[in-house]
Specification:
Elements: H1 4-18, E1 23-28, H2 41-45, E2 50-56, E3 59-64, E4 68-73, E5 79-84, E6 87-88, H3 101-104, E7 105-111, E8 115-120, E9 127-132, H4 156-163, H5 170-175, H6 185-194, H7 215-234, E10 276-280, E11 283-287
Antiparallel strand pairs: 1-7, 2-3, 3-4, 4-9, 5-6, 5-8, 7-8, 10-11
Length: 293
């Protein structure tokens, strides 16, 4: 499933052709994705101007002139394709041709900018939903989310407070969307390696007995922010189905320190350890047992 950097990459690819543009026509080729579309879905979108295109955790949020917000989630295999002047953007070097574009283009937006934006989702685990802007705090998909990891509210003190007394692993805590929004398996593994913290360590150890952030927490938060920023700059990590709006694969998978590198040497200077894979809560965890304590 695409993680925060992939979703942010998609947002940045869509913004130039959607922000400030009017939805001339919206076409839904089926009645549902993961869940049924809202009543009169296409009709409610037609004629609306996209005032802004934002992101909350792994959700894209299009702020519409009608006072509604269009929430979009990529699911397991969803992707957007932008066609401008009749041609899709030229694929990059890591592109692999997708088949049956038309068959899986379930939602299509024709914009006043001249672009056609198609949402392609072979597995149909994505979703789209409309709700009033003034009810955003009550939206079930958003209301329990923690702070954005790239935002100012996410700092060592906040993380220590959230994890104090928690009897779960550090990795499980970071994947808890109520603690911090948008982090996924790949980037948690990478950030823990950069900060030399074992994924098996108890989350409660991120706080001292007084509740203040431990020194390792002071390293973890900037590591999270850095790995996410680096991944966004690289266009994300496309290990399976994710594509940028241009059709290109993300490049960050070529810079992984530990993820999917079982048996390889740890990249930490003078460490000498070997990357190990374990399973936590049904998910693969990659880490160095030598330098991550």
């Amino acid at each position: 499933m695409p993680e925060l950097p992939e979703v942010e990459t998609v947002r940045r690819g869509l913004a130039p052709v959607m922000e400030g543009a009017r939805i001339v026509e919206a076409v839904a080729h089926r009645g549902d994705l993961r869940w049924p579309f809202p009543k009169d879905f296409a009709a409610r979108l037609k004629g609306q101007t996209v005032i802004g295109l934002g992101r909350r955790a792994k959700y894209l949020l299009a702020d519409l002139s009608s006072g509604e917000v269009l929430l979009m989630h990529l699911g397991m295999s969803g992707s957007f394709r932008v066609i401008l002047d009749g041609d899709a953007k030229t694929p990059g070097v890591f592109h692999h041709q997708r088949s049956e574009y038309g068959k899986h283009d379930h939602v299509v937006f024709r914009m006043s900018s001249g672009a056609t934006v198609a949402f392609n989702d072979p597995r149909r685990f994505g979703c789209m939903k409309l709700f009033p802007r003034d009810k955003m705090e009550d939206e079930p998909l958003l209301r329990a989310l923690g702070p954005e990891p790239l935002g100012n509210a996410f700092d060592a003190a906040m993380l220590a407070t959230a994890c104090a007394g928690k009897k779960t692993s550090v990795k499980a805590a970071l994947l808890d969307q109520r603690i911090v929004a948008g982090l996924g398996n790949i980037y948690v593994c990478e950030a823990l390696n950069r900060s030399h913290i074992s994924p098996k360590r108890m989350a409660s150890t991120l706080a001292t007995r007084s509740g203040a952030p431990h020194e390792r927490t002071e390293l973890l938060v900037p590591a999270i922010k850095t790995v996410l920023a680096d991944a966004i700059a690289a266009g994300g990590s496309s290990l399976r189905d994710h594509r940028q709006t241009s059709g290109e694969l993300g490049y960050f998978q070529h810079r992984f320190r530990v993820y999917d590198r079982e048996g390889k040497a740890c990249p930490t200077k003078a460490c000498g350890g070997t990357i190990k894979r374990i399973v936590q809560s049904g998910r693969s965890t990659f880490f160095c047992p030598v330098c991550q304590k």
